[in-house]
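Inputs:
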Amino acid sequence: MTVHPVLIGGEWRESAGAEQAFHAINPSTGEALPECYPLSPLAEIELCLEHAAAAASIVRTWPGERFARFLDAFAAKIEHHAEALVAMAHQETGLPVSPRLKDAELPRTVNQLRQAATAARDGSWSQPTIDTAVNIRSQLEPIGPVAVFGPNNFPFAFNSAAGGDFAAAIAAGNPVIAKAHTSHPGTTRLFSELAHAAAQETQMPPGYFQVIYRCNHADGVMLAKHPLLGAIGYTGSRTAGTQLKTAADAVGKPIYLELSSINPVFVLPGAVAQHATAFAEQFAGSCLMGTGQFCTNPGLVITVASPETETMLGDIAQRFAAAPVGVLLSESVLRNLKLAVGTLVNHGAALLAGGQPVDGAGYRFQNTLLKVTAQEFIRHHQLLQTEAFGNASLVVVANSADELLEVTQYLEGNLTGTVYSAADGSDDELYQQLEDRLRPKVGRLINDKMPTGVAVVPAMNHGGPFPATGHPVFTAVGIPAALRRFSRLACYDAVRPSRLPAALQDKNPTRTLWRMIDGQFTQADVVAK
Amino acid sequence: MTVHPVLIGGEWRESAGAEQAFHAINPSTGEALPECYPLSPLAEIELCLEHAAAAASIVRTWPGERFARFLDAFAAKIEHHAEALVAMAHQETGLPVSPRLKDAELPRTVNQLRQAATAARDGSWSQPTIDTAVNIRSQLEPIGPVAVFGPNNFPFAFNSAAGGDFAAAIAAGNPVIAKAHTSHPGTTRLFSELAHAAAQETQMPPGYFQVIYRCNHADGVMLAKHPLLGAIGYTGSRTAGTQLKTAADAVGKPIYLELSSINPVFVLPGAVAQHATAFAEQFAGSCLMGTGQFCTNPGLVITVASPETETMLGDIAQRFAAAPVGVLLSESVLRNLKLAVGTLVNHGAALLAGGQPVDGAGYRFQNTLLKVTAQEFIRHHQLLQTEAFGNASLVVVANSADELLEVTQYLEGNLTGTVYSAADGSDDELYQQLEDRLRPKVGRLINDKMPTGVAVVPAMNHGGPFPATGHPVFTAVGIPAALRRFSRLACYDAVRPSRLPAALQDKNPTRTLWRMIDGQFTQADVVAK
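Outputs:
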């Protein structure tokens, strides 16, 4: 049995943790895949950190163009090897080849890398600011080695070796240590081989990109608080993320988390009356797409009791029952989904559809719809907000608009909040009251469409109050904003002109760089006074 | 004995904690001042939070103009009552009336409030971003009630009821709960009376500005993690700040801290050879100004051994011995300074000047200069970075330039790092090597002048890596950047036009607001395509 090597200090080398190697599992069959990957011990993680710190020191003052070249070269290689990547990811995750992996997620991943390259080249993300009267100048600069922990549910777009956090950290000028998600090590290996080749072609220093496949929790905590680490990007479970957060916070290390979100969807009475069928169709599609394994999956619906509401719920339940059951990403996703549905049922939720694992090979759970009264929800508001990650959703039925508003008060922080309302304005007064309560609790407020689908555009916010993320001012998606997470503010006070970084010198280095000079945004040079 | 009331929910009311009242102490005499202030119990803090949350909900969508009017009205009142404020602050802190309080700190405070008003009016701080093709729009919005814990050393410019965090939190549209520093409750009371009057005049809701004077540590922790609180601004000791940080971090509550900083100053060999006398004069002035009680006080000097260095240190020691000894802010500052100097001496530092408390009334400590070898510093690098807050500074003498660089590797995060180098370029190679190591560790890098003096300009960074602050991307001084700390990113996805905030509607509401539309900064309207 061959155990794949890890990439440390610019070389593929045998891991000291090869004896504790693991296989990925094909979730469609439940069978182990042949490839084998090591569990890296602490010494190996520390070696990564030393190489990454050396690389950070080398590239600290490089122009954005250098990182852009690497990102572009990597993106081209991914396109060239798309077939192998899609085949591997399909095998490791059970996600459909088309349209999901091949036509949606892979192009999105390549697009993110290229957007990040453009942002690195342009440099405006770093917010150069110059005050001429006092000769004080500042910009955001790279924070140093970034450890990226990717999630299970996006083998491409959030992969620790190619996804959003990777692209943002690299574009901001930082080395990356990728920790593969253990449910898709092969996909991560293929990305890493391409990233390494791209790094060599574009003359990045050894240690600029490194990969390990697994580490134990205690060593992950050591990594999170290590003095040589600059910051952490983590997407995954609330339990593991909270452990890393506690460790990083204790030493003031920036950690950017995406933890859990149930993405409440409100259907106001006018929308139920006017758009029940359209809603049922959109909701079922959104909730079951990718077997419901999206960070922005609509896990909670809140509406007001009426005969039309009952009809609508019946319609949704039928759609859930009739839809094919998708594959879940792993045995642990299945186990946690079963536990979460149990928690909901044990605290007053009634099953309208599904509720049980599906017999047979592979990891599948019936498409599951649950219902609970608003009173019951308020009584057990913490447990009834348990994230049922996968193809399950809970509907809260309030007796009145006031009760619907009261439910809102008990919501935790979420990535998204969605409101469907009547087209004729009949819900508008309630919308305003609801918005007052909902807006502060969600990162992205949506009207009349489902929260799944996260456009990679500058105005996107894929963030939100805890526990959706660790800090509500940052976003994981959306360039250039996502880059700022992996930076620190660096000010130059009376520093001699020849010693200033290019972006802070009098002359605008590219003529396209946006800078704030004496309080005004401009692309001009500093004008001598 | 009359105990002053607290300001809660728009009314001055008797505190339930009047029985545990305290006096401020005049540090010049060590005697208690006549006025008496309560210790607020938890129920009172929770009442503040309820009123503040109600106020936050009311003002959430108000235009910046409303907050600007309040800030401007408050600034005018401060100017009108400058004499009383200066007299009170002098009595409570021992800081000199002129130029410090009257001619420097008070004008700076008023200037900060007016800069914050201008930023609120303009609105560009909130970074409105619009992507027309997908109709996604986002901006920074107020985060909700902000608790401000001010420090002892700036009774005006960082006062919890008038200083930098107050101004930034208000300008970003948030209610403030001010927790007075217990060493200057009277100054805080005067500010609070003026702020309250300004709030009434400008029709701010009750609970928009509130003040308490003291609470115990456990209740401070409850406040920091309370669900109704939006964020915390804290400037003060590392011990108390770390307790609040742990509580806030555990529930993902943004907390912005300014903790401790010893502000290393490097004097390179050419600078010693060419500018020793000028350096000695500037250094002694900076270190002893305000009895050394500045966040950016130069507490650590690092230089290379030579006969000229010995002469320069002798010169500095003479200046320290000859300079008048200032008053320290409180008995606890004196006690901590004595302890810190003891820690330095016990770990190899030799006294070149001072080292003892000054007998007599009031709180005074001799101007103190210490020296240690680089080897000794490296051996006890943690304890020898103990902040000796006050008129004391430690000089590290390296045997070589290489040893100076090695010392740099052991430095903790600091607000500032300063390098004095030769004018003729003879230190330039060493400067580059030093900058590589120093730049990532300090918020503000300074050339050839002392770190004291923090200009309130957009490019300022009064921040830095932990333990100087809690997060290296934020600054406590510098508008508009300081406002962003007290905000969250709010995205609107397909939200109907009539429901959008003014700054995100197609029409630029002021024509001066800077927005990023489809990736470009502009002050224009959204153009229909």
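Remarks. Chain A is about 35% helix and 20% strand. The first helix of chain A runs from residue 42 to 59.
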